[in-house]
Design brief:
Blueprint: H1 2-22, H2 36-43, E1 45-50, E2 59-60, E3 66-67, H3 69-81, E4 84-89, H4 92-100, E5 106-107, E6 121-123, E7 128-129, E8 132-137, E9 149-153, H5 157-160, H6 162-168, E10 173-177, H7 180-189, E11 194-198, H8 199-208, E12 212-218, E13 223-224, E14 227-229, H9 233-248, H10 251-259
Parallel strand pairs: 1-4, 1-5, 9-10, 9-11
Antiparallel strand pairs: 2-3, 6-14, 7-13, 8-11, 8-12
């Protein structure tokens, strides 16, 4: 996931530089030139850029069909907009380029808000928090971790936010570990009592290790969002409204429970 995010940031920096040099800023909300919502209603389609190699969010199932958290999310959004989805499969490194060149109207797949690029890109309400969480062995209660070793992967986001995490895990001894595989082995053997991982990785590890549990509280926040062109304000507003309804009604919570073995 860290490599994926770094790739996205590099691509966006290059594309935004090009856009700033040669594009206008687009119409304001409510101006007749903003036909983003009318356009999809007229065509009957919502074109969505995805990278179907990012389970459990985007993948191809055993029948060769697209599946995953993101797929169900955009299908639900499109349904409430009264249109169908048309997927454009691109590598994550080309996803934003495809969005800007109008190969699609929405990009999704582990993308986060990048305020420094807000002049040209727009971001929906968050639909998932992939922030850091604490995972620990079931035979060690959360309040018994003081004085115990808790692993984190060197070079990961847990390493980047180590001081912030340590402040929230008073008395815990954070120990660097070279790989996720090493963390899994050390948890299984009891060499460490827990680990700090991003929410997606933690869920995948908990699926493989039934002897561990995930603490519900996020230690950091890394929200996943849908990305649109800045000028498509009416479409973004409609998507935001629907994501808000999904959150309020528990739909997103149920989706998380379905695709991530351990719901938070």
């Amino acid at each position: 996931m860290n490599d994926r995010r770094a790739t996205v940031l590099i691509i966006v920096a290059l594309l935004v530089g090009l856009l700033a040099a040669g594009t206008d800023r687009g119409p304001l909300v409510g101006e007749p030139d903003d036909r983003s919502l009318a356009r999809i209603h007229e065509s009957g389609w919502l074109p969505v850029c995805i990278d179907p190699s990012y389970p459990p969010f985007q993948m191809t199932d055993a029948r060769g069909q697209l599946a995953g958290y993101d797929i169900e999310l955009v299908e639900e959004v499109a349904g409430h907009l009264g249109v169908q989805t048309r997927y454009v499969a691109v590598d994550v490194g080309g996803m934003l380029d495809a969005l800007i060149t109008r190969s699609c109207d929405v990009a999704v797949g582990g993308l986060q808000v990048m305020p420094e690029y807000g002049r040209d890109l727009a971001f929906s309400r968050p639909y998932f928090d992939a922030g850091l969480v604490l995972i620990h062995r079931t035979d060690v209660a959360r309040d018994m971790l003081s004085g115990r070793q808790v692993a984190y992967e060197s070079g990961s986001s847990a390493d980047l936010y180590r001081e912030q995490v340590q402040a929230q895990l008073d008395g815990v001894h954070l120990v660097p570990t070279m790989s996720l595989e090493s963390i899994r082995d050390r948890l299984a053997s009891g060499e460490v009592a827990g680990a700090v991982l991003d929410a997606v990785t933690a869920s995948e590890l908990a699926r493989d290790l039934p002897t561990v549990t995930i603490d519900a509280e996020r230690l950091t926040s890394e929200s996943f969002v849908l990305v649109l062109r800045k000028r498509d304000r009416l479409l973004r507003s409609a998507i935001d409204d629907q994501v808000a309804v999904m959150a309020a009604t528990g739909w997103l919570e149920r989706l998380e429970a379905k695709w991530l073995t351990h719901a938070f």
